[in-house]
Design goal:
By secondary structure, the chain is an alpha+beta fold. The protein has a single domain, classed as Alpha-Beta Complex (Cathepsin B, Chain A), CATH 3.90.70.10. Helices cover 33% and strands 16% of the residues. Helix 2 packs across helix 3, helix 3 crosses helix 4 and helix 4 packs across helix 5. Strands 1, 2, 3, 4, 5, 6 and 7 form a 7-stranded antiparallel sheet that branches.
Length: 248
């Protein structure tokens, strides 16, 4: 679920792009420019999951971005719960709805924490009356404090929600983020997680972007026009430090 409207919003975590380290020698169109995070997803056992018949694509993207960042920094599989993120997004925005915008899901995570999927598996149907126990919430909030302290996890906005269509400048920023080793969430009528590219994705028919798609529960590709014409916002999650964390 990802509609497009204009609004003003205060994001809880925003960090500037200049800190990003990118290899300067790479040139669009060259094979050395190709980046593919799918092998790392596989190594970390972060295989594609299905959102089923629910409109939770943006929730899945936010969950996947956080779990990849913390799993990579901790060098272990830390599978997070989309169901908890969906509840947290509702709680953060004060609405009962299945699915959320990126900023609502991110606000939910940064306010109510991170829950392991083993603790709260994804449900086939949405229950607006469900809420986590006090113990589950306290554990999720403790998990978030731990990854913030140990791994320095943070959210960076490439393009907050606005008009449909990313500028070429923002698409180039997304490519730089992928080169630096972090997937990028892109919001559209159906939200996706960018996990790589090959060829020259800034030119039609010269390259493609690889994406993780929770609707098809698979990796697939999209082209430059999709980002330029359809995407309304983009973000990524990264960790500034590596270390061992044991989430509960």
């Amino acid at each position: 679920m990802h509609r497009f409207i204009r609004f003003s919003v205060v994001f809880l975590v925003v960090f500037p792009m200049p800190h990003l380290q990118v290899a300067a020698a790479q040139k669009p169109g060259s094979k050395t420019n190709t980046t593919d995070l799918r092998p790392e997803f596989k190594r970390l056992e972060l295989t594609p999951r299905s959102q089923g018949g629910r409109g939770t694509c943006s929730v899945f993207v936010v969950t996947e971005a956080f779990e990849y960042a913390v799993s990579k920094a901790a060098n272990k599989t830390l599978r997070l719960s989309p169901e908890y993120v969906n509840w947290a997004a509702d709680k953060a925005c004060g609405e009962n709805q299945d699915g959320a915008y990126f900023h609502q899901a991110i606000d939910g995570v940064t306010t109510y924490g991170l829950c392991l999927e083993s603790t709260l598996p994804y449900k086939n149907t949405y229950d607006p009356n469900w809420s986590p126990s006090k113990e589950m919430r306290e554990t999720a909030e403790k998990n978030l404090r731990l990854v913030k302290k140990t791994l320095q996890v943070e959210v960076v906005w490439i393009a907050p929600l606005g008009k449909r269509g990313l500028s070429e400048t923002n698409i180039r920023k997304a490519i730089d983020v992928l080169r630096a080793g972090w997937p990028v969430g892109i919001g559209a009528a159906h939200s996706l997680l960018l996990v790589g590219f090959e060829g020259d994705p800034l030119k039609m028919q010269s390259g493609v972007f690889h994406v993780l798609d929770s609707a098809s529960s698979s990796f697939r590709t999209v082209d430059y026009n999709y980002l330029h014409d359809e995407v309304g916002d983009a973000f990524y999650v990264r960790c500034r430090k590596r270390g061992n964390v044991d989430l509960k």
